[in-house]
Amino acid sequence: MKVLITGGSGFVGQRLCKALVEAGHIPLVVSRTPDKARGRLPEQALVRESVADFAEQAPSAIVNLAGEPIAEGRWTDKKKAELLRSRIDVTREIVELCARMKEPPAVLVSASAVGYYGNQGSREVTEQTTPHDEFAHRLCRDWEAEAVKAKDHGVRVAILRIGLVLDAGGGMLAKTTPLFKLGLGGKLGDGKQYMPWVHRDDIVAMILFLIEREDLSGPFNASAPNPVTNAEFTRALGQALNRPAVLPAPALALKLAFGEMSRLLLTGAKMRPKRFEEAGFSFRYERLDEALDAIFRS
Ligand SMILES: NC(=O)c1ccc[n+]([C@@H]2O[C@H](COP(=O)([O-])OP(=O)(O)OC[C@H]3O[C@@H](n4cnc5c(N)ncnc54)[C@H](OP(=O)(O)O)[C@@H]3O)[C@@H](O)[C@H]2O)c1
Fold first, then answer.
1. How many helices (H) and strands (E) does the chain have?
2. Is the CB of 4 under 6 A from ligand 1?
3. Is domain 2-297 annotated with CATH 3.40.50.720?
4. Is 124 strand, coil or helix?
5. Is 0.85 topped by the overall pTM?
6. CA atoms of 162 and 174, how far apart (whole Å)
7. 178: number of Cβ within 10 Å
């Protein structure tokens, strides 16, 4: 099977391409810098600059992961516009490709994020929860709405509302682990905000699950069944690294340093993967300590 992947050169995309190749499939990767991307991908992957470049390849499935990183730097008006544009433009190109193909792909699995729900305090969040209106919500809402348009062309659309993806070599652990190793780790603000997380192998397994399961569509919370608070996360990471994490970052300092982006660090949602559980998805990593152990042992 040929699977078109936007953002296939990224943290999740690289692992997905590896899994697809191991299962005998061919990844068709869209990247702004194909030469750079090829160096990070299995040699069986084909890499092109735009979605339209793959029209002749007639992919059977599309996975949409591309987007400007959200947790880097302050959310200036320019950055916010780029966060939205980078996601909407490529998603629109996917919908246009589906519209033009005689035989459109069977399925589009399109990324979104826990940010869809906005700040939810400590209440439990399922796919049915009403979102809190804020920038992260509007970004995810518009991104999802663009992807759902592929339905008009007979494509099954599944949306992944992704929690923090954990593994070595990228994502949030690549940023936090060096600080923790220096003994500079600590909770953020009061540490009560929830941080739904998912191991990178499980997010890849979720994508493959949604490609295969023809009966599944709509939004899916993509995180492990046991979300933790920031304080619990901090403790578990400190333990996994054998470093006490005792230097809290005060909320005010984070607000001054990062402005509105500090909401990503100081607020959260106790998101549960209700629909994945109901669909019988089996998690390789259900508990944070097991996931961190596996990551730091390898
Ligand atoms: N990792 C997480 O914890 C997490 C959590 C929630 C949601 N998500 C979402 O899941 C998706 C995949 O995550 P990831 O961690 O694999 O992301 P990533 O490592 O940042 O990779 C995303 C890819 O998007 C492309 N990209 C970056 N900036 C772009 C821009 N301005 N315009 C067009 N393309 C751009 C890049 O590909 P090229 O440079 O090759 O073009 C990059 O490899 C992302 O959309 C992310 O927002 C991730």
1. 11, 13
2. no
3. yes
4. strand
5. yes
6. 18
7. 11
